[in-house]
Amino acid sequence: MVSPEQVKNTLEAQLADAVVQVEDLTGTRDHYQVIVVSSAFEGQSLVKQHQLVYGALKDALSSEAIHALTMKTYTPKTWAAAHGAA
Length: 86
What we know:
The protein is 40% helix and 23% strand. The chain is α+β, with helices and mostly antiparallel strands.
């Protein structure tokens, strides 16, 4: 199992200036939802953005420490637009 803090720290370490929110969906520490905002996603398709997240968490995913992962990814600009910031 992987703690929410470990998921957050891994993503922040692997993705440029990432701001990460992690939610344990089941309380079992193996089903997570993440929201990641990073400038590393600039110019990348949604598929590529998700591949970057999967790549950052590859060890936990391949060892099945994380069984299920859902995600939402944003650039700082798309995050601001989606959440009403200027």
